[in-house]
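Possible regression after last week's pipeline update?

I re-ran a chain I had predicted before the update to compare outputs. Posting the input and the new output here so someone can diff against the archived version. Not blocking, just want to make sure nothing changed silently.
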Amino acid sequence: MRSYPTNSPEAVARIVALIVIADGDIGHAEALWLDRLAVHDRLGLPQHELYAQLDIFLEDLLSSGQLRWADTCPVDDYTLTKLLGEIQDPELQRKLLRLCVDLAEIDAKVDDGESAVLVAAVEQWGLQHEMLLPESRH
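New output (post-update):
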């Protein structure tokens, strides 16, 4: 699996890709929601770059044997910790967490895989207080 510089657009896009695939459903609907939520704009990325990173991440998961659809998270704990560890800036962590929550809630339910990624991010980034403040999500 590739490593990216800390707080890089690639590292951020990879977390978005992880939340998108965490429910085990990658399809046209997910792409539409990425566009409707203007995820690329919210991350400061060109749209094609976000989609390129999604493809690259899936390739990395498939080639490394990390993709685990049967479990509650599509990657193992070590890999999840490593991916989340590439995001160190507290403001970027908060922004990314809000975005990932928005993406997970799109279909009016948060699946087990999405929940596992969100909980890991909250714990690793120390953002438990963010989840208690409703105004922090807007």
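Follow-up from reviewer: compared with the archived run. The chain has one domain: 9-137. Marking as no regression found.
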